[in-house]
């Protein structure tokens, strides 16, 4: 190779990825090759004949002879700087002091277990949105751990447009809304179950309440049903068993869930189901001196609350009900997973109730197995007394009548039903199954921060969208006497041993 100037060399060099392409007249031209790749970064640069040759495009850059397939996963992603990129620069003395303060606070937090604040978490992307506010994926700036932060607007709780239409005084309506607001924080702080989401922190500021929950990366069951349509009976039976374990655990603690639907069922990284969103749940009152937000006993519930398509008929009719309403909702969810829609649909709860009252029994397709038909028929009874009392017959057999009457309630053991023949109940109830095995639907997760199994309707949403509407000055719109101390006791920090078990 002849000696030439650096400017001439650079003018003849083009870059293709990590290699340099040099038009060198000293190399013999190969008829089968357009250009050779020369590694200029090695100690002894030499031309290396590639196994896959590149053709030169019209603009002088090398292009592959066969186009590369574009991944659909990253097709709609916006170009942004990766969150883990760190840039090193020379900092003045005051910046070093800030860094030292940051390090001292990090160490003090891990040691003293301080209460958290909004500034401790970095927002990454939106996971969901509802009337209450948003659920946002956040990263702990001290530990880099990921959480799902549920934000509740104080204005939505303290100000209600329906108060003028209701006969009850405003103070009574406010107390009901506060009770539902405190329900999720109080219930989750007292529970620990493999199929129930974990609460780690809660706090509030002038405008919002914050619940820092366990991030479940597999997304909503609703998302997977939308992708797959319907599920096989064995898959449905497995997830029905996990939901049943969670409901049975809640009922044993005196809690009625009241909002079972595909949107509130998440799949973790191993494909196991986890219940979330306890905002409509109700806890029984055993000690009335414990808190003013406990409410009425579990056996005398009257609120018309929940998602109508999955609600028990007694709730829609405004009658008194108990925890047995959750087993009717389980039947609706199992029906949805098998058929692709709940058994009854309508524009409002009155239309749905009318359809339920009109039909003697829900229409169960003939193509389902006899065992699944029997299972659904026992749960989807509109009369409470004729519905399968799962809490009573969870793992025991009831009395067997020689002559079975039509419409009689099922009294056989729930765990021994034919649809659960492949379920290891001992391992599932102890949590060993969830730790050691994978579920039937294994979510595809390449990066937890991408939230790939959540709807793009939310994950592509701007983090600051609706910020102007959220910034409502509560103190200007609410009576200070009414607002005083109504959110007292909402803040919460999980114990150190609890955090260590899950991180």
Automatic annotation (TrEMBL):
<keyword id="KW-0547">Nucleotide-binding</keyword>
<feature type="domain" description="Protein kinase">
    <location>
        <begin position="121"/>
        <end position="420"/>
    </location>
</feature>
<dbReference type="GO" id="GO:0005524">
    <property type="term" value="F:ATP binding"/>
</dbReference>
<dbReference type="InterPro" id="IPR008271">
    <property type="entry name" value="Ser/Thr_kinase_AS"/>
</dbReference>
<dbReference type="InterPro" id="IPR000719">
    <property type="entry name" value="Prot_kinase_dom"/>
</dbReference>
<feature type="binding site">
    <location>
        <position position="150"/>
    </location>
    <ligand>
        <name>ATP</name>
    </ligand>
</feature>
<feature type="domain" description="AGC-kinase C-terminal">
    <location>
        <begin position="421"/>
        <end position="502"/>
    </location>
</feature>
<feature type="compositionally biased region" description="Basic and acidic residues">
    <location>
        <begin position="92"/>
        <end position="103"/>
    </location>
</feature>
<dbReference type="Pfam" id="PF00433">
    <property type="entry name" value="Pkinase_C"/>
</dbReference>
<dbReference type="Pfam" id="PF00069">
    <property type="entry name" value="Pkinase"/>
</dbReference>
<keyword id="KW-0067">ATP-binding</keyword>
<keyword id="KW-0597">Phosphoprotein</keyword>
<dbReference type="InterPro" id="IPR000961">
    <property type="entry name" value="AGC-kinase_C"/>
</dbReference>
<protein>
    <submittedName>
        <fullName>LAFE_0E02850g1_1</fullName>
    </submittedName>
</protein>
<feature type="region of interest" description="Disordered">
    <location>
        <begin position="92"/>
        <end position="114"/>
    </location>
</feature>
<dbReference type="InterPro" id="IPR011009">
    <property type="entry name" value="Kinase-like_dom_sf"/>
</dbReference>
<dbReference type="InterPro" id="IPR045270">
    <property type="entry name" value="STKc_AGC"/>
</dbReference>
<dbReference type="GO" id="GO:0004674">
    <property type="term" value="F:protein serine/threonine kinase activity"/>
</dbReference>
<keyword id="KW-0808">Transferase</keyword>
<dbReference type="InterPro" id="IPR017892">
    <property type="entry name" value="Pkinase_C"/>
</dbReference>
<keyword id="KW-0723">Serine/threonine-protein kinase</keyword>
<dbReference type="InterPro" id="IPR017441">
    <property type="entry name" value="Protein_kinase_ATP_BS"/>
</dbReference>
<keyword id="KW-0418">Kinase</keyword>
């Amino acid at each position: 190779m002849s000696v030439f100037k650096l400017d001439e060399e650079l003018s003849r060099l083009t870059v293709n990825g990590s290699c340099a392409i040099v038009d060198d007249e000293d190399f013999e031209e190969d008829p089968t090759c357009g250009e050779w790749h020369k590694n200029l970064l090695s100690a002894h640069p030499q031309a290396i004949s590639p196994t896959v040759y590149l053709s030169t495009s019209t603009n002088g850059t090398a292009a592959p002879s066969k186009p590369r397939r574009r991944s659909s996963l990253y097709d709609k992603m916006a170009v942004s700087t990766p969150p883990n990129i760190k840039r090193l620069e020379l900092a003045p003395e005051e910046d070093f002091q800030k860094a030292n303060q940051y390090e001292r606070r990090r160490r003090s937090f891990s040691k003293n277990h301080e209460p958290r604040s909004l500034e401790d978490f970095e927002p990454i992307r939106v996971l969901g949105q509802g009337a209450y506010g948003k659920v946002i994926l956040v990263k702990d700036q001290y530990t880099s751990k990921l959480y799902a932060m549920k934000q509740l607007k104080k204005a939505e709780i303290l100000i209600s447009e329906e108060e003028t239409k209701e006969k009850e005084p405003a103070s009574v309506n406010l107390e009901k809304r506060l009770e539902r607001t405190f329900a999720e924080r109080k219930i989750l702080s007292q529970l620990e179950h493999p199929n129930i989401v974990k609460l780690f922190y809660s706090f509030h500021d002038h405008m919002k309440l914050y619940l820092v929950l366990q991030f479940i990366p597999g997304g909503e069951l609703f998302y997977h049903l939308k992708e797959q349509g319907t599920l096989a009976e064995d898959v449905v039976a497995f997830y029905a068993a996990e939901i049943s374990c969670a409901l049975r655990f809640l009922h044993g603690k005196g809690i009625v869930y009241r909002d079972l639907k595909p949107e509130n069922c998440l799949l973790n990284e191993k494909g196991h189901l986890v219940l979330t969103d306890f905002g409509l749940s109700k806890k029984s009152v055993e000690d009335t001196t414990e808190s003013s937000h406990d409410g009425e006993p579990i056996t005398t519930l009257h609120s018309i609350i929940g998602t109508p398509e999955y609600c028990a008929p007694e709730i829609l009719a405004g009658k008194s009900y108990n925890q047995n309403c959750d087993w009717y909702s389980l039947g609706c969810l199992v029906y949805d997973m098998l058929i692709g829609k709940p058994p009854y649909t309508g524009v409002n709860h009155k239309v749905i109730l009318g359809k339920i009252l009109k039909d003697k029994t829900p229409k169960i397709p003939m193509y389902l197995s006899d065992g699944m038909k029997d299972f659904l028929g026992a749960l989807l009874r509109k009369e409470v007394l004729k519905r399968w009392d799962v809490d009573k017959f969870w793992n025991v057999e009831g009395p067997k009548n020689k002559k079975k009457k039509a419409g009689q309630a099922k009294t056989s053991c729930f765990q021994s039903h034919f649809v659960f023949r492949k379920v290891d109940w001992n391992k599932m109830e102890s949590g060993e199954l969830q730790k050691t095995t994978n579920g039937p639907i294994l979510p595809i997760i390449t990066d937890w921060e991408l939230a790939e199994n959540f709807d793009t309707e939310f994950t592509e949403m701007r983090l600051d969208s609706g910020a102007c509407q959220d910034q409502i000055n509560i103190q200007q719109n609410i009576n200070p006497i009414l607002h005083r101390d109504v959110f007292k006791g909402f803040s919460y920090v999980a114990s150190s041993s609890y955090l260590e078990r899950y991180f």
